[in-house]
Design brief:
Elements lengths: L14 E4 L6 H8 L4 E4 L3 H9 L3 H7 L6 E5 L8 H11 L2 E6 L2 H8 L8 E4 L5 H4 L5 H7 L11 H18 L7 H13 L3 E2 L2 H8 L3 H13 L3 E4 L15 E4 L2 H7 L9 H23 L4 E5 L9 E7 L2 E7 L11 H6 L5 E7 L2
Parallel strand pairs: 1-4, 1-5, 2-3, 3-4, 11-12
Antiparallel strand pairs: 6-8, 7-8, 9-10, 10-11
Amino acid sequence: MKYLERALICPEESFFLLGPRGTGKSTWLRRHFPEAKFVDLLNEMTRFRLMAQPGAFGLELEAVPPGSWVVVDEVQKMPELLNEVHRFIEERGLKFALCGSSARKLRQAGINLLAGRALSRSLYPFQPDELGDSFDLEDALRYGTLPVAWGSKTREEKLEAYIMTYLMEEIQAEALVRNLPGFARFVTVAAILHGQLLNTSNIARECGVSRPTVDAYLDILEQTLLCVRLPAYEGRLRVRERKQPKLFWIDPGLVRAAKHQLQPLLAAEERGHLFEGLVCTTLLAYRDYRRAFTELRYWAPASPSAVEVDFLLLKGEQMIAIEVKSGAVFNDSWCRGLRAFGTPSGLVRRLQVCP
């Protein structure tokens, strides 16, 4: 398959590149840094050598010309290397592209250590404008756009294998949970809740675990970059607003694989949430790629009703309200949420998104 240009703009200084496995981070890095020294920590021999000889990484960096680029792939596998990264940024002016598929260890050991010395960037599944004429909405809703599976003749198998690899390598190998079967059940429940409000007490009952365990499991999904919890917008003084976050997976194909429902035809009840999630990921991608806005929220009143605004894009004192519907024929009732939101100070635009 030919290389597809990504919308992510390459920084000119050291940076972390985060994103779930299979989004093409390594391919993107090799494309942009063909002459860089490349340290692949997915390679068992490389990782064993660096663990056995703690000073080896520093000795290798000594041979890199000042001001050159160094790529460290899957840096969360050995976050202790970031001490040397820090030193060589300061002493030799080396520039580092630090790639990872889990923010957990990096947040603990890396980003704080390198605060002010490394930017943070994210890579997402293929976006519609990256795919161009190859983008097909129905196909994207059925199987997603993860580069690791996109275009494959065995996409169902690749997506199912992705979930199994995630459970075995990301979760079990890193000893993130003690009860792997319980976490596997939770992953399925979390996929069913894609695009919906999170009620951790209900999830705990469904999975047969405690509420603190559910909170920890949600943290793992978010820290391994497969899901995001979209916060509620709280900005109106006279209207009580909903406060629970909504859960979105980063790719429709992963949602369906985690539910074990990769049948070719989309069920009517899943289409709306899958389409809303696809829009959510697109917005997140262009928040990070183009800095068009800074925060993403949703809005809904606290009183039980179907009225809500799916997305609020915030930048400074300004905001854009977006309502998403998966139907093909416009219905005026779709605008109820946008109307209920009113015209608060800073609202510059209200948009309706549909196929």
